[in-house]
C-alpha cells in the first residue's frame, strides 16, 4: 500500500476491523472449521492422548482387570528390553531396503533417462508401478510362496544353475534381508514414478549448459539431475520411510517376526503385545515411540530438503 | 578465437527438414546474427554448432577443425541460453566457476576470472546469491558472465534477450555488443527480432524454412534485399508490396512486384512518382513520426509522415513514391531483379 493512498483506502474500509486485505478469512472462519476439527479430535486426538495415557500403566487390556502405574517404565523398556530394541533396529535396517534402495535404483534410472529418452516409457512405468496397487497381503502371500524352500520359484530358479536353494525366510541371517527385498520390490515403483516424472520437469537447457560447460555424465547427474530432483527425493524418502517404519502386514504374513525375533518390527510388537501378550500398556508405549520416531525422521528429511534449496 | 564455417549443413528430424544445405562463413571475431521467424532453423543451426544436436549432412568447422563428431565440451564454445539455464542450487560464483572447474583451471585463476567478469558486468555484489534471488536482468548478466569467464573460441547466444522487458532489452543489446567488441570473440547470435539483428550484427544471416535467404551487413540487407522474404522481414514497419497495375502506375519493369519502404512513400509533392490516391486503413502515430496504412485498390502501402499527422481512418489521402526507393522482385520466384 502506498503511503499517499493510505488515508483514502482506510476511509473506503471504514468499519472493517484490522488491516486485513479484502477476501482474507476472518475469525468467523474458525467456526466453519469447528465441525471437522471436532470429528478429528474425537477420532484421532482423543485416542492418541488416551494411548499415551495407557502407555503409562501396566494393564492386560481386560476391562475389569486392575492396572498398575508404570510411569515411564514402558518407555525405558523400549531401550532395555532385548526384543523391543531389536524390533527398532530391524525397522532401521528395513529402512535401507524400503527407502534407500528403491530411491537409489530410481535415481539411477532417472539419470539414464535424462540422457536418453526411453521409448514406451509410460508402459514401462505402469508395469513397474504395479506392485503398488496390489494389496500388501497379496504381495506378502505371493512372496512367501516364491521364497518357499521346497517348491518356491526362487530356489527352483537357482536350481537350474546348480545353486543350492536356501530357507530364505527361515534362516536367522537371511530372513530380514529377504523381507526387506520384498519392500524394495514394492516401493521401487513408487520411487521410480516420482523420480522419472521429476526428471522430465528439469529444463533441458540445464543439461545443454552442463554439456557445453564440460560436464561428463556423472558430473551432469550431480550438478543437474540430483539437485533438480531434491523435492521428489524428499517426498519419496518420506513416504517410503513411513512405510518401512510402520511395516506390519508383510512381517505378519511372511515370518510372524521369526525365526526367533530376527524379523520382528515395532508395529508387529504393538500387535502381539496388545492382542496376544496382554501387555497393552507396553504396546501403547511402543506405538507412541514409533509415532515419535516417524515424525522425527520425516521432519529431518524435509528440513534437509528445504535447507538445500 | 576462431572462424566458423558451415559447409552444406543439413538437419532432419524424422521427415522434417529443419536446416537445408546451410553454407555460411563467419570470420574470426565477427558478430554474426542468425535471424528468422520461428521454425526457420536458426536455433537448430546454432545447436549443431554447439554440438547439442547431431549433424545430418555436411560439415561444421571451428577454426580448421571439423567438429561434426566432437563433443560439446571439447569444442571450446560457451553458450548463453534463452532461459539462462543457471544451476539453481549453486551460487552465482559457482555458476560462473563451474565450466572452469571442469577444465581444471587453478582455483586462484578461477577466482581472478570470475571477479573480473563480475566487475565488467557490474554484478560483484551478486556473487554470493543463488539464481532464485536474482531479477531477470541480473540472471541474464550472470548467464553472460558464465560465457565470458570461459574465454572460449566462440560465443553462442540463443535469443538471450527475449525474456527481458523492452527497456532492459535495448540496454543489454548495446552492452553485449560492447563486450563482444572488447573481447573480440567470434559470436553467433540467434534471434527472431530483426531490430536486434540490425543493431547488433556485423553481418546478418536471414533464415526461412530451413534455408539461408541472404547474408550481409545490416545495410546490405536493408538496401538490397535478395528476395521478397528478406525485404519483408527486415525493417519495421515492413516493406509494402504491390504491382504497377494494382495502383494504376506504369513502372519500368512491368509484371514485377514492387517493394517500397515507408520512408519512400510520402504525402504528395512534386518530384515523386504519382500522385496515388487511397483510403486510410490505419494510423500509427508515434509522436516523432506517423505511419499511415493506405489501401489503394488491392494493395496496401504504408505512408511515412513527419511529426504527428492528423488523419482518420477512411480519409482520402494523396501520396507519391520516391523513385530511388523502389525495389523490384520477380513475381514468380520472389528474387530481386
From TrEMBL, chain A:
Transcription regulation as a keyword of this entry, yes or no, is no
Q: Which UniProt keywords apply?
A: Cell membrane, Membrane, Transmembrane, Transmembrane helix, Transport
Q: Name one Pfam family in it.
A: BPD_transp_1
Q: List this protein's GO terms for biological process.
A: transmembrane transport
Q: What is the membrane topology noted in the UniProt record heading this document? A: Multi-pass membrane protein
Provide the residue span(s) of the region labelled Disordered.
1-20
Q: Where are the transmembrane segments?
A: 30-56, 87-110, 122-143, 174-195, 280-301
Can you cite an annotated GO cellular component? plasma membrane
Q: Give the matching CDD domains.
A: TM_PBP2 (cd06261)
Low complexity compositional bias, start-end: 1-15
The record's SUPFAM superfamilies line, in alphabetical order, gives: MetI-like
Domain ABC transmembrane type-1 as annotated: residue spans: 88-301
The record's annotation in InterPro entries points to:
MetI-like, MetI-like_sf, UgpAE/MalFG_permease
Q: Where in the cell is it found?
A: Cell membrane
Q: Which family does it belong to?
A: Belongs to the binding-protein-dependent transport system permease family.
The protein's name: Sugar ABC transporter permease
Amino acid at each position: 500500500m502506498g503511503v499517499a493512498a493510505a488515508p483514502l483506502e482506510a476511509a473506503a474500509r471504514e468499519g472493517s476491523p484490522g488491516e486485513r486485505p479484502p477476501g482474507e478469512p476472518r475469525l468467523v472462519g474458525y467456526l466453519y472449521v469447528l465441525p471437522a476439527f471436532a470429528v478429528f479430535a474425537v477420532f484421532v486426538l482423543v485416542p492418541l492422548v488416551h494411548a499415551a495415557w495407557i502407555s503409562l500403566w501396566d494393564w492386560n487390556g481386560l476391562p475389569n482387570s486392575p492396572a498398575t502405574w508404570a510411569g515411564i517404565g514402558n518407555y525405558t523398556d523400549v531401550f532395555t528390553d532385548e526384543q523391543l530394541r531389536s524390533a527398532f533396529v530391524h525397522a532401521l535396517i528395513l529402512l535401507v531396503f524400503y527407502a534407500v534402495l528403491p530411491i537409489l535404483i530410481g535415481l539411477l534410472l532417472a539419470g539414464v533417462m535424462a540422457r536418453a529418452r526411453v521409448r514406451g516409457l509410460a508402459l514401462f512405468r505402469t508395469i513397474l508401478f504395479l506392485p503398488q496397487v496390489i494389496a500388501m497381503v497379496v504381495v506378502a502371500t505371493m512372496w512367501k510362496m516364491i521364497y518357499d524352500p521346497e517348491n518356491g520359484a526362487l530356489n527352483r530358479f537357482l536350481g537350474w544353475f546348480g545353486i543350492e536353494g536356501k530357507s530364505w525366510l527361515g534362516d536367522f541371517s537371511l530372513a530380514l534381508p529377504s523381507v526387506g527385498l520384498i519392500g524394495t520390490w514394492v516401493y521401487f515403483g513408487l520411487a521410480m514414478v516420482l523420480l522419472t516424472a521429476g526428471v522430465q520437469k528439469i529444463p533441458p537447457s540445464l543439461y545443454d549448459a552442463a554439456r557445453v560447460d564440460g560436464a561428463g555424465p556423472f558430473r551432469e547427474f550431480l550438478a543437474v539431475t540430483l539437485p533438480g530432483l531434491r523435492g521428489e527425493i524428499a517426498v519419496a524418502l518420506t513416504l517410503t520411510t513411513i512405510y518401512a517404519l510402520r511395516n506390519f502386514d508383510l512381517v505378519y504374513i511372511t515370518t510372524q517376526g521369526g525365526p526367533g525375533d530376527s524379523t520382528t518390527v515395532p508395529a508387529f510388537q504393538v500387535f502381539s503385545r496388545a492382542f496376544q501378550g496382554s501387555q497393552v500398556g507396553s504396546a501403547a508405549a511402543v506405538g507412541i515411540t514409533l509415532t515419535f520416531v516417524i515424525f522425527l525422521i520425516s521432519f529431518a528429511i524435509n528440513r534437509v530438503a528445504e535447507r538445500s534449496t | 578465437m576462431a572462424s566458423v564455417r558451415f559447409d552444406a549443413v543439413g538437419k532432419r528430424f524424422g521427415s522434417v527438414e529443419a536446416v537445408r544445405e546451410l553454407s555460411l562463413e563467419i570470420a574470426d571475431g565477427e558478430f554474426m546474427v542468425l535471424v528468422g521467424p520461428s521454425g526457420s532453423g536458426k536455433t537448430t543451426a546454432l545447436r549443431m554448432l554447439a554440438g547439442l544436436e547431431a549433424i545430418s549432412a555436411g560439415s561444421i568447422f571451428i577454426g580448421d577443425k571439423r567438429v561434426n563428431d566432437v563433443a560439446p565440451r571439447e569444442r571450446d564454445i560457451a553458450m548463453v541460453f534463452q532461459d539462462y539455464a543457471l544451476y539453481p542450487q549453486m551460487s552465482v560464483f559457482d555458476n560462473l566457476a563451474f565450466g572452469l572447474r571442469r577444465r581444471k583451471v587453478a582455483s586462484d585463476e578461477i577466482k581472478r576470472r570470475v571477479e573480473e567478469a563480475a566487475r565488467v558486468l557490474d554484478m560483484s555484489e551478486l556473487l554470493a546469491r543463488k539464481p532464485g534471488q536474482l531479477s531477470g536482468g541480473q540472471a541474464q548478466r550472470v548467464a553472460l558472465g558464465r560465457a565470458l569467464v570461459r574465454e572460449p573460441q566462440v560465443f553462442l547466444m540463443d535469443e538471450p534477450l527475449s525474456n527481458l522487458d523492452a527497456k532492459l532489452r535495448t540496454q543489454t543489446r548495446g552492452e553485449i555488443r560492447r563486450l563482444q567488441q572488447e573481447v573480440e570473440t567470434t559470436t553467433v547470435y540467434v534471434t527472431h527480432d530483426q531490430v536486434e539483428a540490425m543493431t547488433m550484427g556485423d553481418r546478418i544471416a536471414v533464415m526461412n524454412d530451413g534455408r539461408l535467404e541472404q547474408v550481409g551487413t545490416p545495410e546490405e540487407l536493408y538496401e538490397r534485399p535478395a528476395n521478397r522474404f528478406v525485404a519483408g522481414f527486415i525493417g519495421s514497419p515492413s516493406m509494402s508490396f504491390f504491382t504497377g497495375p494494382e495502383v494504376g502506375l506504369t513502372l519500368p519493369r512491368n509484371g514485377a512486384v514492387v517493394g517500397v519502404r515507408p520512408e519512400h512513400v510520402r504525402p504528395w509533392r512534386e518530384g515523386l512518382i504519382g500522385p496515388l490516391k487511397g483510403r486510410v486503413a490505419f494510423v500509427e502515430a508515434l509522436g516523432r513520426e506517423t505511419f499511415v496504412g493506405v489501401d489503394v485498390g488491392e494493395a496496401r502501402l504504408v505512408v511515412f509522415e513527419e511529426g504527428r499527422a492528423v488523419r482518420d481512418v477512411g480519409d482520402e489521402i494523396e501520396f507519391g513514391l520516391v523513385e530511388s526507393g523502389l525495389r523490384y522482385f520477380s513475381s514468380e520466384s520472389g528474387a530481386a531483379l
